[in-house]
Amino acid sequence: MTADDDSDYLGGWAGRAMLVLASSTGGIGAHVAGMAGRLAASGVEVLVCGPGSTEKQFRFTERGASFTPVEIPANLHPSDMRAVRALRQIMVRDKPEVVHAHGLRAGLAAALARPTVPLVVTWHNAPLRNGLRGRMHTLIERIVGRAADVTLCASADLEDRAKAVGAKDVRFFPVAAPPLQRTRRSRAAVRAALGIAEGVPVGLSVGRLHPQKGYSMLVTVAARWRDLTPVPRILIAGEGPSYLDLAAQVSELRAPVTLLGHRNDVGDLLAAADLALVTSVWEARQLFAQEALTAGVPLLATAVGGIPELVGDGAELIEASNPDALDRAFRKLIGDPQARAELAQRGSRRAATWPNEQAAVESLRNLYAELAKRTG
Fold it and tell me: What residue segments make up the domains of the chain, in order of their start?
């Protein structure tokens, strides 16, 4: 391929791209897996680098990508320089034409590896820390933002943050949720497998068990709902560092909450749910919110980060970290099937306006082509 052959750069780019991610059990890993599979299917040679656990969970190689394990922890760690050296060696060996890191931890490792080809970094999250850790995170943002040739941001507030730290070329990128996989199980069968009788209201949330998700507040407020008849069941699917604390809290408060752990059947869980719940203190383009609206399930979510611009009038929005607001909104919606149905209809209309994964992949191929042409 030559820089003079413009046909190679008009959405048909099929070069070699390296995708880098740090430790992930949720949204970032799912997004990278979706992009890797569709890029590979479109003719791009995809090289994925990340912790070995991500290959086990997201199965990049089954999607047509090659995978090289590089241990990049979710937080700063003394072993980080080993990851930098490993990435540098892989870049020399495999000669990618574009390096695309997902998240600031992967972006930092890729930036320090000093690729001689264009570097793209997608910002998926904002820091929620103060003090020394907050200042360290801002320093990482500055290093990564200034090292990247293009910074892609999943929400408008991330765009503002990237520009504030000196990122050179900042663009919005709609991180699309992967298509939901449904089995042939009926709603009743899914509920029966979970031990939930028909007629019992079900609230569902899916996400990493981390303080960012606001699950401690959700458990606390759910304990209040034991006065409802029938008592609702709240399902939380996901893994993460807050699991033991949340399990203890559920037990202590006798909250009607079930921690399901990691699940591969989110589509089925949504079919069993009456209301989807997002209680986070910050999100960008939250994948579960997209999945809920796409599945036609009414959504109650906190008005934080990129969620309002994502859902528009397609969800019931409440203030974050406000237990009483969550309590009132949940009781109102669970007690009013007509309100839930109308909310679900608005959500479906909103979801129909979002770009899907294939559109996102075409956007990436055009970006990679643009960058490859610059260096060609």
Answer: 6-176+356-375, 187-351
Looking up tokens 């479109």 gives 42
Fold type of domain 187-351: Rossmann fold (3.40.50)
Instruction: State pLDDT tens for residues 170-205.
Output: 999 999 988 888 777 899 999 999 999 999 999 999
Tokens 């408060």 sit on residue: 253
Cβ atoms 87, 47 nearer than 8 A: no
User: What is the spatial distance between Cα 263 and Cα 181, in angstroms, rounded to a whole number?
Assistant: 12
| Secondary structure letter of residue 17 according to DSSP | E
If residue 121 lies in a helix (H) or strand (E), which one and from where to where?
Answer: strand 119-123
Other C-beta atoms lying within 10 Å of the C-beta of residue 260: 15
Domain 6-176+356-375: homologous superfamily in CATH: Glycogen Phosphorylase B; (3.40.50.2000)
Task: Return the closest-CA partner of residue 184 out of 271, 115, 248.
Answer: 271
Q: Going along 225-319, which residue ranges are E strands?
A: 233-237, 257-261, 275-278, 299-302, 316-318
**Is the backbone peptide bond immediately before 230 cis, with ω within 30 degrees of 0?**
yes
Token pair belonging to 242: 């807050």
Q: How confident is the model over 82-93, as pLDDT tens digits?
A: 999 999 999 999
More confident residue, 133 or 293: 293
Q: Say if CB 121 and CB 152 are below 8 A apart.
A: yes
* Backbone torsions φ then ψ of 116, nearest 5 degrees: -90, 5
CB 357 within 8 A of CB 179: yes
Cβ count within 10 A of residue 20: 29
Q: What is the pTM of this model?
A: 0.89
